[in-house]
Every structure is written in structure tokens, then in C-alpha cells.
Design a protein that fits this description.
The chain is α/β, with parallel strands linked by helices. It has nine helices and eleven strands. The chain has a single domain, classed as Lysozyme-like (3-Layer(aba) Sandwich). The protein has a five-stranded mixed beta sheet. The protein has a two-stranded antiparallel sheet with strand order 1-2.
């Protein structure tokens, strides 16, 4: 057991690491955008056996394994889940598309964004600016502690009454590439083309090799409050993220992948920093739902804008 300050996630997080964990290491520069497959990252052993997969699907299965609060992979004695193993299967869209070209045109994408009133600058940068070195989109949560005496999540966390959902506050955040609020707005802190570290694994200085490593990762922070005590922010909402938030993350993922030319490998922050001081984000992330939202949004982009198209209207109909 250890406890470390969390400069990225915000608060101290005690955690356990199970023998056999691993992390990624620097790989060769991928090919020219849209023409050649990227080269899989070479795994690095950390405290035990290394992950030996090399395909985008195998990497995603490892990097999208869920973790327990406090950065713990070891399941509760009454649980039948093994959080230490890679996923056995990926959601349908990811399983079908990872490692393949993004079959969307710039005109189609821009028409769709115009129809829903979203700017490219809200999605990590201009769509016509390539990301030839990118390989991973890392999903973080901000782990903002509500306060020592707050025992339940107030309804306001999913409204603009919660300060971190407000655009003016969102725009002040700079410790990742993109930030997504719980009401579905997003702000770009750094263009995805800027080599930037938001993990301990990539926090390796500013040398040319360090920049090459950082350029492989696109970092997205999802606004998420936490409950806890004694300085630890251990309890997340369940579900962890709103419909609007997952819709915007789907759009950001599509935009980053479009700029690279191939579908990026999604990864959870905890897994990228596996073997380092623990994080436990993102908590309560619905991977199946998010994958479906990517699929739905891609279909809307390819179909072209129609009357009333809006990413969030799907959810309103489903809720009704």
C-alpha cells in the first residue's frame, strides 16, 4: 500500500498494485497519416510479466481494463471479477475499427459540426492538421473532491451550477489536451499536435525522444467530482459520466482519429501509468455505451446532417 500526491488528478490516492502489471514503452514513429499502419508500442515489464500483445485490439484490451477505487486491481473477496486481466473482448465498434482507416471526409465532418454548432477548436484542434505520430487517446477523470463533509452527490454536479462545468472555468484548465464537462461542453487546453504529458509514464523531460513519446498520446480529462475523507478522493458517481459527456468524448475521439487517419487506441489513465504510483481514473466509465455513441455519431457524420440532428437528442428520446 502506498499513498502519493496526485498533481494531475488533484488529490492523494492510496493504492495497491498486483504483481504482473505492465506499461507501454516508446515505439518507432508511425507511418504517414492515412497510408500506413502505425507500429504497435513495445510493452515494458514493470514488477512482473509484461503484456505481450501487439495488435491494436490486444493493446486496447489491456489498456481498457477497469480498475477499482484507490488504483486497486485486486477484486473484493465477494466479487467474481478479475480486474487484473485484459478484457476478453472489445465493444463492437472498437473491435471492428481499431487499426483501420477513418473513412470520413473533411467535408462530411465539417458539415456535421456546423449542423450541431460545435467548433473544431473545441475538439483538440483543426481537423485539417494531421497527427501522424498519435496512437493512443487517454481517458482521464479529474477526481475533484467535493469536500470532507459531503456524503452524497448533489444534483448540481450535472448542471452549470457546478463550477467545473462552466465554460469560463473549463477554459482555464491546461493540464491535458481537452477537457469535457458534465453538460457536454469541451475546451482545448493544448492542441493534440502538441507533445504534452498528462501521465507519469510520459513525464520524461523535453529531449527529442521524450517528445516523440509524448506525441503518441492524446489526453482527455472528463470532469468528475469525488467523495471521500482523510484527503483521499475515492468515491465516484455511478454512472461516472453523463450522456452528454460521453457523446462529446465520442466526438473528440473521432476528431483525433480523423486527424491521425486511423482509429486511435483508447486507454484509461490508470493503465498507462500501470507500474507507477497509482491512479484510479476513470471510474465507472461505461465502455459499451461510449463505443455505441462513437458508432452512432460516425453514422450521423456519414449520412450528412438532417433536420434536428443533435448528438444529445438521441439520449432525450431514449430517456422519454
Amino acid at each position: 500500500m502506498f499513498a502519493v500526491p496526485g498533481p494531475i488528478c488533484g488529490y492523494t490516492k492510496p493504492g495497491n498494485l498486483k504483481d504482473g502489471t505492465s506499461c507501454l514503452a516508446l515505439s518507432p514513429r508511425p507511418g504517414t497519416v492515412g497510408r500506413n499502419r502505425t507500429v504497435p508500442a513495445t510493452p515494458r515489464a514493470q514488477g512482473g510479466l509484461a503484456f505481450t500483445g501487439g495488435t491494436p485490439m490486444e493493446e486496447a484490451k489491456s489498456l481498457l481494463r477497469p480498475c477499482l477505487p484507490h488504483g486497486n486491481y485486486v477484486p473484493h473477496p465477494n466479487s467474481h471479477s478479475d480486474f487484473g486481466k485484459p478484457l476478453e473482448k472489445l465493444p463492437e465498434f472498437l473491435n471492428k475499427h481499431l487499426g483501420t482507416s477513418v473513412e470520413i471526409t473533411l467535408l462530411q465532418f465539417r458539415k456535421y459540426l456546423n449542423s450541431i454548432g460545435v467548433s473544431e477548436t473545441e475538439l483538440g484542434g483543426p481537423l485539417d492538421s494531421d497527427l501522424p505520430k498519435a496512437r493512443y487517446l487517454v481517458i482521464h477523470d479529474t477526481s475533484y473532491k467535493l469536500g470532507n463533509h459531503i456524503q452524497t452527490f448533489p444534483d448540481s454536479i450535472n448542471t452549470i451550477a457546478y463550477a467545473h462545468n462552466q465554460i469560463r472555468v473549463l477554459k482555464t484548465k491546461k493540464h491535458a489536451h481537452v477537457f469535457i464537462s458534465r453538460v457536454g461542453d469541451s475546451s482545448t487546453g493544448h492542441d493534440f499536435s502538441e507533445p504534452f504529458s498528462a501521465t507519469k509514464y510520459t513525464n520524461v523531460g523535453s529531449s527529442p525522444p521524450a517528445k516523440e513519446l509524448k506525441a503518441k498520446f492524446c489526453h482527455v480529462e472528463m470532469i468528475q467530482p469525488r467523495l471521500g475523507d482523510h484527503g483521499s478522493d475515492w468515491k465516484a458517481p455511478d454512472p461516472g459520466f453523463t450522456f452528454e459527456q460521453l457523446d462529446r468524448l465520442a466526438l473528440v475521439y473521432i476528431a483525433a482519429s480523423f486527424r491521425h487517419g486511423e482509429w486511435l487506441i483508447p486507454a484509461y489513465h490508470h493503465n498507462v501509468d500501470m507500474g507507477f504510483d497509482a491512479h484510479d481514473d476513470p471510474q465507472n466509465f461505461d465502455l459499451e455505451d461510449w463505443s455505441k455513441r462513437i458508432d452512432d455519431t460516425v453514422n450521423l457524420i456519414l449520412r450528412g446532417p438532417g433536420p434536428g440532428d443533435n448528438a444529445n437528442q438521441r439520449d432525450l428520446k431514449n430517456m422519454g
